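As a representative case, the lines below give one protein's residues and fold tokens.
***
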Amino acid sequence: MRAYTKEGDTIVGDILVGEARSISKPHVIVKTGKHKAQRITLRENATCRIEKKLRFIN
């Protein structure tokens, strides 16, 4: 399994699991139209993995 470690690398999945020593407070962001989402920042030795891949992407 490849580990993406460079700044700007992106992980895309239906469900992502993240672990870190410290996380930021959730911030509400605008996605499309009236839809809202939340964003947090993982800090200090942060890792993420895909628990469920997107259905329509190979």
Observations:
- The first strand starts at residue 15 and ends at 19.
- Residues 31 and 50 are 21 Å apart (CA to CA).
- The mean pLDDT is 90.
- Residues 1-58 form one domain.
